């Protein structure tokens, strides 16, 4: 198991206005099983083959619609909040997930919502980069320079722009020598990307088959499946309105993701 340093996106959860419907959708799409963190708690965990992969909770009043959120690890939420506010970000909500875990929902200086995760019991998901688990976190924003400034100032990430060809530039964020997130301008004409947001990618064995199954379950395709240097991916909106993405890696990309210097989380 690779150790992920502080300041790494290590957890995702879904905030939904209908947690029962959302649970049914992802359980049927990914084969996830569901449990609660504590007998009397309202925070649910998704597992795959017995390993924790993501969370689910009710949509709070502070957020306008259902969404997947990416959480960045911290040792001290209070100190991280001070850095975030100094950099132009703002606190939306702070909650206790369990007796050992605190989380905060925040808005960065350009408006994208993300989370902080401080935990001593399950400090991270138990599986990454394998089918039906988290594989990448991408900030989608028109304010690329501001995105670089904010996350560099707050988390000491190192941005590296990479020319992908055809006028397509992708920015990687590195933390401790490992590529842990990315940043990209929204697709031209995509009204659903009017506001900046973090797009969550889940690894799948077959993108086309997973897209077809998601449509059967009521999802809407926002970006059809297409090939990239990394593999084949698609972006969808689930029946409750949350945007998420699927990614089928090329074999060499999947192998790189398992190394300490891999480009994927």
Automatic annotation (TrEMBL):
SUPFAM superfamilies: Glyoxalase/Bleomycin resistance protein/Dihydroxybiphenyl dioxygenase. Pfam families: Glyoxalase, Glyoxalase_6. InterPro entries: Anthracycline_SecMetBiosynth (IPR052164), Glyas_Bleomycin-R_OHBP_Dase (IPR029068), Glyas_Fos-R_dOase_dom (IPR004360), Glyoxalase_6 (IPR041581), VOC_core (IPR037523). It comes from the Bacteria. Residues 8-119, 133-249 form the VOC domain. This is VOC family protein. It comes from Ktedonosporobacter rubrisoli. Signal peptide: none annotated.
């Amino acid at each position: 198991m690779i150790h992920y340093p502080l300041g790494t996106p290590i957890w995702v959860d879904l905030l939904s206005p209908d947690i029962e419907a959302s649970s049914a959708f992802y359980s049927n799409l990914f084969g996830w099983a569901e449990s609660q963190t504590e007998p009397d708690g309202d925070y649910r965990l998704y597992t795959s083959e017995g390993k924790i992969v993501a969370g689910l909770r009710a949509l709070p009043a502070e957020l306008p619609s259902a969404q997947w959120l990416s959480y960045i690890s911290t040792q001290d939420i209070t100190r991280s909040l001070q850095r975030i506010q100094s950099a132009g970000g703002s606190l939306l909500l702070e909650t206790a997930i369990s007796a050992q875990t605190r989380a905060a929902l925040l808005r960065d200086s350009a408006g994208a919502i993300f989370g902080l995760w401080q935990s001593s019991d399950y400090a991270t998901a138990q599986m990454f980069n394998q089918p039906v688990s988290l594989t990448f976190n991408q900030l989608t924003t028109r304010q690329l320079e501001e995105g670089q400034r904010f996350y560099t100032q707050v988390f000491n990430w190192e941005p590296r722009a990479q020319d992908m060809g055809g006028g397509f530039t992708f920015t990687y964020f590195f933390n401790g020598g490992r590529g842990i997130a990315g940043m990209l301008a929204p697709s031209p004409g995509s009204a659903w990307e009017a506001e900046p947001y973090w797009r969550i990618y889940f690894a799948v064995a077959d993108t086309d088959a997973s897209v077809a199954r998601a449509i059967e379950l009521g999802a809407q395709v926002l970006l059809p499946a297409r090939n990239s240097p990394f593999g084949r991916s698609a972006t969808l909106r689930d029946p409750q309105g949350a945007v998420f993405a699927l990614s089928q890696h090329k074999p060499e990309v999947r192998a790189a993701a398992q190394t300490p210097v891999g480009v994927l989380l």
